[in-house]
Amino acid sequence: MADLNPQAKQMADESMVRNLAAQAQAIWPQEAPLFQRYKLPAEPQVLDAGCGTGEISERLAALFPRARVLGVDIIDHHLELARSRSASLAPRLRFEHQSVFELDAPDHSFDLTVCRHVIHSIPHADRVLAELARVTRPGGYLHLIPEDYGMIHFQAGALDPRDFWHETLRPFAAATGTDLFIGRNTFRILAGMNLQAITMDYVVVDTIRVPREVFAAIIEAWRDGYSEAIGELTPVTRARARAYFDQMIANIRDPKGYAVWMVPVMSARLPPEG
Ligand SMILES: C[S@@+](CC[C@H](N)C(=O)[O-])C[C@H]1O[C@@H](n2cnc3c(N)ncnc32)[C@H](O)[C@@H]1O
């Protein structure tokens, strides 16, 4: 069976803690209004599946002040960080060690099931989406960020980042059993799951909407966390991977430069009962 957590090392690295903080800063301001479209009960039960350091679990608890929010992950260090930073919100916000492949919750437990930046990093995204749907109540919602590395664009400099994505994505995905284009491919999975009201929106992380330093911090964290694995799993060496990332960072920091990461935000509704 394929390794169910092929990015375990990168996910547990300190660079991921920085990355999740920067991603939340970059993405949440555009994403938060999308939650208003869900018709939720007054005291909703919310699951943050693959919650990492709880950046977003905490924001969800703030956005829905009467919600009970459960964040689950398989990295205990992230869970400890999440618990310590949001201790004042316990027990309304709590964190548990659980895998998204096999959640502890009974069927139909949550009104809103959130899963951000997870399914691009694991094999069998369809199994995870089925498990998320299982624990979501009839009439409840899935809210997903399935990353897609064909939706990130930089300008060429001494190096052309287009070459980097072209040379690395296919071998990296093959070696890890993952789908790095799961953003576009999630639609087909959801459409085959008897779900309703499937939506696709985009958070635009670009050098106009997001502070350049926040965007640069994301790519710095990717450079520090992933260059080694790219060197091992693809024809691009570790040093060259770092050079490509540095090129992207320079592009972002150039006051006249433009770069964009289109982040898909998807939702779907479980068919209501009756
Ligand atoms: C890129 S982080 C995203 C964290 C968080 N959702 C956010 O948006 O800030 C991906 C997280 O998924 C977690 N993860 C990977 N496989 C998992 C599994 N089988 N069950 C639960 N969490 C998992 C990783 O440990 C990591 O913390």
Write a compact overview of the structure shown:
The protein is 42% helix and 20% strand. With 274 residues, the chain is α/β, with parallel strands linked by helices. The model has no long low-confidence stretch (mean pLDDT 96).
Q: How large, in whole angstroms, is the Cα Rg?
A: 18 Å
Number of helices: 9
Topology, number of strands: 8
Cα distance spanning the termini = 38 Å
Shape: globular
If you average the pLDDT, what whole number results? 96
What share of the residues does DSSP label as strand, in percent?
A: 15-25%
Question: Which residues sit in consecutive blocks of at least 5 with pLDDT less than 50?
Answer: none
The hetero compounds bound to this protein are: S-adenosylmethionine
- The ordered H/E elements are HHEHEHEEHEEHHEHHE
Helix percentage range: 40-55%
Structural class: alpha/beta
Characterize the largest beta sheet: strand count, sense, and whether it forms a barrel.
Answer: 8 strands, mixed
Task: Explain this structure.
- The longest helix has 22 residues.
- Strands 1, 2, 3, 4, 5, 6, 7 and 8 form an eight-stranded mixed β-sheet that branches.
- The mean pLDDT is 96.
- Helix 2 crosses helix 8.
- With 274 residues, the chain is an alpha/beta fold.
- The protein is globular, with a radius of gyration of 18 Å.
- Strand 4, helix 5 and strand 5 form a beta-alpha-beta unit.
- The protein has nine helices and eight strands.
- S-adenosylmethionine (SAM) binds next to helix 2, helix 3 and strand 2.
Which key features would you list for this structure?
9 helices; alpha/beta; 8 strands; 274 residues
